Amino acid sequence: MIQVGIIGGAGYTAGELIRILLNHAKAEIAFVQSSSNAGNPIDTVHRDLIGETSLNFVAEPDFEAVDVIFLCMGHGKSKEFIERNSIPDAVRIIDLSHDYRLKAEGNDFIYGLPELNREVIRSSRRIANPGCFATGIQLAVLPLAAAGVLENEVHVHAITGSTGAGQAPSRTSHFSWRNSNVSVYKAFQHQHLGEITQSFKQLQNSFDFAINFIPVRGNHTRGIFASVYTDFKGSLEEAKDLYKRYYADHPFVFVTDENPDVKQVVNTNKAVLHLEKHGDKLLILSVTDNLLKGASGQAVQNMNLLFGLDEKEGLNLKPVSF
């Protein structure tokens, strides 16, 4: 049984991790750390877990009790945590922040997008879990990069639910502002652009084009709908064949002939892709749950790979229809 520790246990991603791991046949939660909630029952914060667990939050982690820790803290906090704690080499780390996603000197974390790096992940010890927008956008484009056919700029318009902003309240996540409202933020300069570009270049070293990304705050709570288009010389059938071959052995990515919607993937670790050809442009629609395939579900998928388990273990999650 894999013993798991969660650092920064009060946020949305930690809540989703706890929910998944409580029902994971081959993993057990040893502790959930939260400085601000130490001593309190977990279900007083994550109220959907009432009746599911009797665990309390702890103030300090016990690294000797675990095989793996998930870091569910804000950006910048993971690096601080690792630098101030002596984490045994035997303890594997899966970081859900932005801190280690970009390659840099001294960074030994592997970028944890299984559809890009699955075999490398299996033999790794430290994983940088991808960003939520980055996951949906990359899955929309990776087959093109792998085939070396990205020959122009990539255009992205993607809308995300309010949970993507985290649990701490802010002006733009407050219900009365967010409800019945839509707004653009960080146009052309979103923090996920670096990791997206890095992955495209990993598959197609010649990729040197702009990724024109317009992120949108939606008035729903969870789910990302990304509309991506770029030049493609082949036919629609050739594109579909390319995508189906690339994702043939990746169990969470599905290519559909039907125009998708967010509710198909909410509460699941799925990514659903739909392709259309319009003149010389290939349009790829990509839908994911920002808290699951875009965060906690993918983190558990990475844990499964690290420990030699079936990639799908614990992730047979059902969509919410209404």
UniProtKB/TrEMBL annotation:
GO MF annotations, alphabetized: N-acetyl-gamma-glutamyl-phosphate reductase activity; NAD binding; NADP+ binding
Catalyzed reactions: N-acetyl-L-glutamate 5-semialdehyde + phosphate + NADP(+) = N-acetyl-L-glutamyl 5-phosphate + NADPH + H(+)
Domain of life per record: Bacteria
Enzyme Commission designation: 1.2.1.38
The keyword Transcription is annotated on this UniProt entry: no
Associated pathway: Amino-acid biosynthesis; L-arginine biosynthesis; N(2)-acetyl-L-ornithine from L-glutamate: step 3/4
PANTHER family: N-ACETYL-GAMMA-GLUTAMYL-PHOSPHATE REDUCTASE, CHLOROPLASTIC-RELATED, N-ACETYL-GAMMA-GLUTAMYL-PHOSPHATE REDUCTASE, CHLOROPLASTIC-RELATED-RELATED
Protein name: N-acetyl-gamma-glutamyl-phosphate reductase
Organism of provenance: Sunxiuqinia elliptica
Organism placement in taxonomy: Bacteria, Pseudomonadati, Bacteroidota, Bacteroidia, Marinilabiliales
